[in-house]
C-alpha cells in the first residue's frame, strides 16, 4: 500500500533523520522524497510503501503523529489514492 | 510525485474546510409493509440494523486512512406515508420512534424519510403522517421530516400548503428548534443525501450509497487568486475547483460502496456552509465584489456560482444527483447572519436568491407571532418559483415562539443562532383559505 507522509513545521536539525529512522522501524520503504522551505516552514513530502497491502495504517499514523509531537512538527499520513483521485483526470 | 498538488490537497482539507459533508445510505422499506403496525415497526427496525450495521465503521475507516473528514453519517428511507399506509393505525409516531431508535443504536447522526409526497393529492397514509409530524418530532431527536407539496408536472397542492403552515406553527409551539427537522418541498428529488429533506425514492434500488460533498472555503480561496478578473475567469475557476471537490466525493463513494457491498448512487456537490469561519457561501458572493450579500448583484453572483458548481461537478463523477448547487441557509452561514444583522439582507432578497440557488428559504427564523397563513404564503411562493422554473425549492422556517424581530434565536451547541427576520405584515389568509390545486404550468406538457 502506498502512503503519503507530509511533515510540516519549524526547521531544525535531524527531522529527516528521525522520520526516516521511524519509517525504517515500521518497515516502510521510501519511494520518493522531496523537501523544501515554504514561508519559513520546513515542508517534506514522502511517498512510502508498506510491506503488506493490509498494513495497519492507524497504527502507523499513531506512531508518526507521536513522533511529530516529540520533534515539534505536524506529521500527516494518508493513503496515496486520494491525491490521484482529486488531482488527476 | 507532484509535491505542489499534494500540498494543495492538504491545504484544501486542513485550512479551507473541504470535507465529505455526508455519506447517506438510502434504504427501501417497501418490503417492511405490514397490516400490524407492531410487526411493521419490528421489520423496519430489523432491516435498518441489518442494512447499515457497518456504515459508521466504514466511514470512520475511510476518514482515517485517507485523511478526509466525513462529517455526517446518515440514512434515508422510503417515505413513511407509503410504508405505513397499509398498517392499521391512525398514529405514525411509533414509526418515527423506530427510526430514531435504530439511528441511535447505529450511531447515525440523522435519519430522513418521515415524509409524504402530496403534490397532487393525499392518500390515507399522507394524511395520517402529516397529522403525526408535531408529536413525532417531539418524541425523537434524529428524525427528519419532509413534505413535497408541488411539482412542475402536478402543480401545487394548496390544501397541503395551508396545512403545512399550521403544522410548522404547531411544531414551533412545542420547540422552535424542532422546526430545523422539517422541510416543505416542491420538486423534491429522490436521491438527495442532505437533510432535512432526504428520503429514499420508490424508484431507487433496495439500498444505495449517496455522497454529499462540500467546500465553500475552497471556492472562496480559489476566487481570492483571481481578484478583479472578468466573470469568464470567475466561472472557469469555480468549475475547476468544483471538479476537484467532486472527484473526492466520487472516490470516497466508490471505496464506501465497495466495502459496504452497496451500489453507489450519486454525488451531490452542494456548497453547504457551516457557521465556522471561512465556510460560508455568502463570503464567496462577497469575494466576487459585493460589499455584502444582499447588495444588488447578489442574485446574479449566486446564479453564476450555482451554475459553475454544477458544470464542474458533472464531469467529475459518474452520476450527479441530489440538489447539487449552492445552499443558502441563513443560520448556518456566518456571512448570511452578519448581513441580516447589519440590515443588508431581508426576506425579499432572499426569496429572489432562491430562484437561482439549489434549494430555497432555508433556516430562516421569523417572529413567533407570524400567522400560519403567512407561513403558508411563503411556502406557496417558494413552490411557485420551483414549479415554474423546473427546479427544487424548499421552505424551512423557524417561527421563534415568544420572540420578535431584532432578537436572536439560539439553537444550542453546534447549530449556532439566527437573527429573527422581519416578515411582510400583510395577510395572505383569504388566499390560503381557498385550498384546491394550482394547475401545472403550460411548459409541463412535454409529452
TrEMBL record, chain A:
Record-linked InterPro entries: ACT-like_dom_sf, ACT_dom, UPF0237/GcvR_regulator, UPF0237_ACT
Pfam families: ACT_6
Organism domain of life: Bacteria
Domain ACT: 4-78
Family stated for the protein in its record: Belongs to the UPF0237 family.
Protein name per its UniProtKB record: UPF0237 protein FC83_GL003212
Lineage: Bacteria, Bacillati, Bacillota, Bacilli, Lactobacillales
From TrEMBL, chain B:
InterPro entries registered for this protein in UniProt: UPF0210 (IPR007841)
Organism domain of life: Bacteria
Name of the protein described by the UniProt record: UPF0210 protein FC83_GL003213
Xref: Pfam families: DUF711 (PF05167)
PANTHER family: UPF0210 PROTEIN MJ1665, UPF0210 PROTEIN SPR0218
Family from the record: Belongs to the UPF0210 family.
Subunit relationships: Homodimer.
Amino acid at each position: 500500500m502506498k502512503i503519503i507522509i507530509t511533515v510540516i513545521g519549524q526547521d531544525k536539525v535531524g527531522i529527516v533523520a528521525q522520520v526516516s529512522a521511524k519509517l525504517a522501524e515500521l518497515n516502510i520503504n521510501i519511494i520518493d522524497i522531496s523537501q523544501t522551505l515554504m514561508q519559513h516552514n520546513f515542508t517534506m513530502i514522502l511517498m512510502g510503501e508498506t510491506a503488506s497491502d493490509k498494513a495497519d495504517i492507524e497504527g502507523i499514523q499513531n506512531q508518526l503523529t507521536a513522533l511529530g509531537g516529540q520533534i515539534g512538527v505536524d506529521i500527516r499520513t494518508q493513503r496515496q489514492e486520494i491525491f490521484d483521485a482529486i488531482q488527476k483526470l | 510525485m507532484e509535491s505542489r498538488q499534494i500540498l494543495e490537497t492538504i491545504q484544501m482539507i486542513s485550512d479551507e474546510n473541504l470535507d465529505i459533508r455526508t455519506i447517506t445510505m438510502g434504504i427501501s422499506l417497501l418490503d417492511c409493509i405490514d397490516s400490524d403496525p407492531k410487526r411493521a415497526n419490528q421489520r423496519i427496525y430489523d432491516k435498518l440494523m441489518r442494512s447499515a450495521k457497518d456504515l459508521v465503521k466504514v466511514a470512520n475507516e475511510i476518514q482515517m486512512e485517507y485523511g478526509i473528514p466525513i462529517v455526517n453519517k446518515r440514512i434515508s428511507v422510503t417515505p413513511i406515508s407509503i410504508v405505513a399506509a397499509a398498517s392499521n393505525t391512525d398514529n405514525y409516531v411509533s414509526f418515527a420512534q423506530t427510526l430514531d431508535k435504530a439511528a441511535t443504536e447505529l450511531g447515525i447522526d440523522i435519519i430522513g424519510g418521515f415524509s409524504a409526497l402530496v403534490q397532487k393529492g393525499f392518500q390515507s397514509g399522507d394524511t395520517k403522517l402529516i397529522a403525526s409530524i408535531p408529536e413525532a418530532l417531539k418524541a425523537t431527536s434524529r428524525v427528519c421530516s419532509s413534505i413535497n407539496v408541488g411539482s412542475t408536472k402536478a402543480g401545487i397542492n394548496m390544501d397541503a400548503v395551508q396545512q403545512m403552515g399550521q403544522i410548522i406553527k404547531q411544531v414551533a409551539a412545542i420547540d422552535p428548534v424542532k422546526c430545523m427537522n422539517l422541510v416543505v418541498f416542491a420538486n423534491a428529488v429522490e436521491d438527495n443525501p442532505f437533510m432535512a429533506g432526504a428520503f429514499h425514492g420508490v424508484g431507487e434500488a433496495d439500498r444505495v450509497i449517496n455522497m454529499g460533498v462540500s467546500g465553500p472555503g475552497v471556492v472562496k480561496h480559489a476566487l481570492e487568486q483571481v481578484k478583479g478578473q472578468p466573470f469568464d475567469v470567475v466561472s472557469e475557476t469555480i468549475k475547476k475547483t468544483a471538479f476537484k471537490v467532486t472527484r473526492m466525493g466520487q472516490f470516497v463513494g466508490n471505496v464506501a460502496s465497495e466495502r459496504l457491498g452497496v451500489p453507489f448512487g450519486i454525488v451531490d456537490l452542494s456548497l453547504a456552509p457551516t457557521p465556522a469561519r471561512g465556510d460560508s457561501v455568502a463570503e464567496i458572493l462577497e469575494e466576487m465584489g459585493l460589499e455584502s450579500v444582499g447588495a444588488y448583484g447578489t442574485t446574479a453572483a449566486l446564479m453564476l456560482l450555482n451554475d459553475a458548481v454544477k458544470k464542474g461537478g458533472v464531469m467529475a463523477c459518474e452520476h450527479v444527483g441530489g440538489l447539487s448547487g449552492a445552499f443558502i441557509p441563513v443560520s448556518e452561514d456566518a456571512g448570511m447572519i452578519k448581513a441580516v444583522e447589519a440590515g443588508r439582507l431581508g426576506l425579499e432578497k432572499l426569496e429572489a436568491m432562491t430562484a437561482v440557488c439549489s434549494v430555497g428559504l432555508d433556516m430562516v427564523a421569523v417572529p413567533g407571532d407570524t400567522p400560519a397563513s403567512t407561513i403558508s404564503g411563503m411556502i406557496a411562493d417558494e413552490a411557485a418559483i420551483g414549479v415554474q422554473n423546473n427546479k427544487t425549492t424548499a421552505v424551512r422556517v423557524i417561527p421563534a415562539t415568544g420572540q420578535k424581530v431584532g432578537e436572536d434565536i439560539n439553537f444550542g451547541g453546534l447549530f449556532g443562532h439566527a437573527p429573527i427576520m422581519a416578515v411582510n405584515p400583510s395577510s395572505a389568509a383569504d388566499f390560503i383559505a381557498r385550498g384546491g390545486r394550482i394547475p401545472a404550468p403550460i411548459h409541463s406538457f412535454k409529452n
